[in-house]
Amino acid sequence: MAIPILKNWQNYFENPDEGLGSSYERIVLNIKLDELYQKYHVKNLLESPSFGFTGVSGINSFAAAQKDIKTFLVDHDKSRIDLIADFWSKHNNDCQINFTKDYAQLPFADNQFELSWNFSALWFTEDLYKSLKELTRCTKRAVLICVPNRSGLGYVFQKLSGKEELKKYLNEENIIPVNIIKTMKSLDWKLIDNDYIDCPWWPDIGMPKEIFLKFFGLQWLIKEKQSPPITIMNYYDGIEPDFAQNMMQHFWFEKSAPKFIKRFWAHHKYFLFEPQ
Questions:
Q1: Which residues contact 114 (CB under 8 A, 6 or more apart)?
Q2: Residue 116 pairs with which residues in a beta bridge?
Q3: Which residues pair with 270 in a beta bridge?
Q4: Parallel, antiparallel, or unpaired: how do β-strands 96-99 and 113-119 relate?
Q5: CB-CB contact of 222 with 20 (8 Å)
């Protein structure tokens, strides 16, 4: 769940090691986004909110910018915006990062973007209706919304272990699918596709494996040898050209698992909308 990122998001800018789970997540997400870039002939893209789950903030649209898609990000933390801008610059990529105190007010023209989207981020918005109304105002072809799979065993475990933080810092009602679909319908946007995504063979623990195993008294299962760092930035920087292929070796479960299994195992769900 997103709770850990509230406390440790700064750390990823110094050490972008995201581990296997987030690295796999980014590759399968890139595949889905690539489909949409082609389908909607995307030349400019908006990610709002851009702060969502684990890893380097603002990284989810990094691949779009590398494809010469004009990329815009929106965040509500000025210090994080500075770090994102510096990070992208160091990795020879470019985006426009905008600050807002309220996602119900975005500094963009009507129908400015072919595609707008967010990933596990709507629970940072104060008002779901106003935020989605503003997002759709700026968008002319499609809106993609990804949320944590609330039926997933990993989510249930994390919610039970961090329910006080969830209640204090996040608006869980904003990531409930029926609320999103109903709101988008009221804004004259229709749901054209939805499915589970990010469903590898490991559970969605949302925390270092050491902490997860310690919770069950199984820390003795961890080998003393530390795993090498894993970061998709090595792929984007051309250091590990086989990175995506290596991550896709784990795709077999997501490809073959029936939907009733994914309902309890997938880490996220996506919802794709078009204007009525």
A1: 40, 41, 42, 43, 44, 45, 139, 140, 141, 142
A2: 46, 143
A3: 146, 195
A4: unpaired
A5: no
Is the model's pLDDT at 88 over the cut of 50? yes
Degrees, nearest 5: CA angle 147-115-18: 45
Strands 139-148 and 113-119: parallel
**Nearest residue to 180 via CA among 123, 107, 140:** 123
Measured in residues, the chain has a length of 276
Under a CB-based contact definition with an 8 Å cutoff, are residues 78 and 86 in contact?
Answer: no
Residue 182 CB neighbours (<10 A): 13
Token representation of residue 105? 């007010």
What mean pLDDT value characterizes the chain? 90
Q: How many whole angstroms separate alpha carbon 248 and alpha carbon 252?
A: 8
Does residue 131 or residue 158 have the better pLDDT?
Answer: 131
Convert the pLDDT of each residue in 4-30 to its tens digit.
677 789 999 989 898 888 999 999 999
Q: How far is CA 89 from the centre of its chain?
A: 21
CA distance 47 to 100: 13
Percent of the chain with pLDDT over 70: 90
Q: Are 233 and 159 in contact (CB under 8 A)?
A: no
Burial 120-157 (b: 16+ CB within 10 A, else e): bbbbbbeebbebbebbbbbbbbbbbbbbbbeebebbeb
Residue 90 contacts residue 79 (beta carbons within 8 Å): no
Q: Which of 172-181, 196-205, 248-257 has the lowest mean pLDDT?
A: 196-205
Q: Which residue, 248, 247, 256, 254, is CA-closest to 269?
A: 254
Q: Which residue has the higher pLDDT, 212 or 125?
A: 125
Just give the CATH number of 10-275: 3.40.50.150
Statement: the pTM of the whole predicted model exceeds 0.90: yes
